[in-house]
Design goal:
By secondary structure, this protein is mainly alpha-helical. The protein has 19 helices and 5 strands. Strands 1, 2, 3, 4 and 5 form a 5-stranded antiparallel sheet that branches. A hairpin with a 2-residue loop joins strand 3 and strand 4 (340-348). Helix 5 packs across helix 14 (374-408), helix 5 packs antiparallel against helix 16 (439-461) and helix 16 (439-461) packs parallel to helix 18 (492-511).
């Protein structure tokens, strides 16, 4: 189902993006060149990642492919500016656009490279893939587009409508009471939304099986008495005898859980191969009873019966393992590893958190026994990744702010504020909807930073040129079509990722023009444009 959703949404959004770009420029050349820069970026990312790490992880491809939503902004920005200024030649146009495009690349690359600071190979692969792909796409646009683009596209009805809409967009002014009231409302929405935030790192957030299928699995497991492959007890000792004695000390405690309905049953090797100590104890008990029974039978029959002599050797794993019926149980015997013998006690009917806690308490009460919770371990790993990436997200914002301040000084807040507000609002909106914060929530926040800051830079760098607004609108629309539609997915991880992108990128796009420079600064920027063109 997840594959069907990704393919359906992916191909549908790709077709919509291609139509959007075509109707904006009414030429195939911009569409072909922008698509080519994206293909080169993805190819470069895969190549460099494979050279450094030897292989490319699937999650790296999933996250790295999302750089398409960022890399396409460079090509779209170039063709939008060419369309809005047809009299300017390609090379002067690229020299004019280069500072803003270079800063947009630097800030996005810093956001992605911050992932590589974590000592986790998966995050490092994502960082290398994304940064390399962005660099290749950026260099393709800068170095090749002026050569390959000979004639500027004429103004289309779609681009004309979008470009002219910038003049009607409101600008933020603290002096207006309505704007102060709006700021207060947004702040309250964010604060109360954050009070509802909760995290969820369980495996159920990665996939959602149909309820009917889950019920069938549960019913079959109960009928067949299948143990849980996700939770079991690992027993280790210094010898085979000590291993069996540890299991025998564990089983009475497990019997208590069976009586309390915390678990249904369990399977242990010591059920089939008792320890030598237990065998001797059993033999002593049997010998006394057998002697009395033989004496009574001898009296009744008038004969003298004696038990035939038998081997005194204990029954061990050497006798047990060759037996045919043990083949399905041999996986529970781990043998010797580094001077330690190990076995596994399988648990049946463990289906609640309270039962899991009781089982963990029993395991900790016996020396050499450890509860292995595979689902819990994977959930803990997801939580670890989420925590690490959350810290790196703050580092990414810090690095981006420094880069913006280096270029714009006191006006740098105009480029970053829309993205910060959009990120906070997207988290708050998800909290109001009851959506948990998980790994894919944080992954989406990195993309929101990478795309949103580009919109702020383009509008701050060229705020008097309406073609920059066309580039922002086309870039935002293509990103929303590519990733925002994943919010419709029934798979929890894809749904969370798409919902964050829908809110974050959409709000970054809507808020960026509100923070552009005011009319009083327009003349100075216009003179700067004429100077650059000259």
């Amino acid at each position: 189902r997840a594959s069907w959703e990704i393919n359906t949404i992916g191909y549908g959004s790709l077709a919509a993006v291609m139509l959007l770009v075509f109707f904006a420029f009414m030429k195939f050349r911009p569409l072909i060149l922008v698509s080519g820069s994206l293909l080169i970026g993805c190819a470069a990312g895969i190549s460099v990642t494979a050279l450094i790490f030897g292989k490319v992880h699937l999650l790296t491809l999933v996250f790295g492919a999302s750089l398409v939503g960022v890399a396409e902004d460079y090509g779209i920005h170039y063709f939008s500016s060419r369309q809005g200024n047809p009299d300017t030649k390609p090379f002067p146009m690229m020299r004019y656009l280069f500072p803003g495009m270079w800063l947009a690349f630097i800030t996005s690359a810093l956001a992605y490279l911050s992932l590589g600071m974590a000592p986790l190979p998966g995050l490092q692969q994502m960082a290398v893939f994304s940064a390399t792909g962005l660099l290749a796409a950026f260099l393709t646009v800068v170095c090749w587009f002026p050569y390959l683009d000979k004639n500027a596209a004429g103004q289309s009805w779609l681009s004309d409508k979008i470009s002219n809409s910038l003049g009607n967009w409101p600008r933020w002014q603290w002096r207006k009471k309505a704007h102060k009231f709006l700021a207060l409302a947004i702040s309250l929405f964010i604060v109360f939304g954050f009070s509802k935030l909760h995290t969820e790192d369980g495996l159920r957030q990665l996939q959602s099986s149909p309820p009917g299928l889950i019920k069938q699995q549960k019913d079959i497991s109960e009928i067949l008495g299948l143990p849980s492959p996700a939770q079991y007890l690992l027993v280790t000792a210094n010898s085979e005898e000590a291993l069996l004695r540890t299991e025998e000390a564990l089983k009475p405690r497990l019997d208590v859980l069976v009586d309390a309905n915390s678990i249904r049953s369990y399977n242990a090797i010591s059920d089939w191969v008792p320890s030598v100590k237990r065998q001797n104890e059993n033999q002593t008990l049997v010998a006394g009873v057998e002697k009395r029974m033989l004496a009574d039978i001898s009296v009744s029959l008038g004969e003298s019966l004696e038990r035939p002599e038998s081997s005194k050797a204990a029954f061990t794993f050497k006798n047990w393992l060759p037996l045919k019926f043990t083949q399905t149980l041999q996986a529970q015997y781990l043998g010797e590893v580094d001077g330690k013998w190990g076995s596994v006690v399988m648990i049946n009917g463990l289906n609640s958190e309270q039962s899991l806690a009781s089982l963990e308490a029993v395991a900790s009460s016996v020396l050499g026994v450890k509860l292995i919770d595979r689902s819990g371990e994977i959930s803990g790993l997801l939580k670890h990744y989420r925590s690490k990436m959350t810290m790196l997200l703050f580092v990414a914002y810090f690095l981006v702010v420094i880069a913006l301040f280096w270029r714009y000084k006191s006006q740098s807040w105009r480029a970053i504020c829309p993205t910060i507000i959009a990120a906070l609002l997207s988290l708050s909106a998800s909290a109001w909807l009851g959506e948990p914060v998980q790994l894919f929530t944080v992954l989406a926040q990195f993309l929101i930073l990478g795309t949103g800051v580009d919109y702020g830079i383009f509008l701050l760098e060229h705020h008097t040129d309406s073609s920059s607004w066309l580039a922002v609108c086309l870039g935002a629309a293509s990103t929303l079509l590519a990733f925002g539609l994943l919010a419709l997915s029934a798979t929890p991880a894809l749904h969370t990722f798409g919902l964050q992108m829908l809110f974050g990128v959409g709000l970054s796009w809507l808020l960026s023009p509100c923070f552009r420079l005011h009319a009083s600064d327009d003349n100075a920027k216009q003179q700067h444009w004429h100077h650059k063109e000259h």
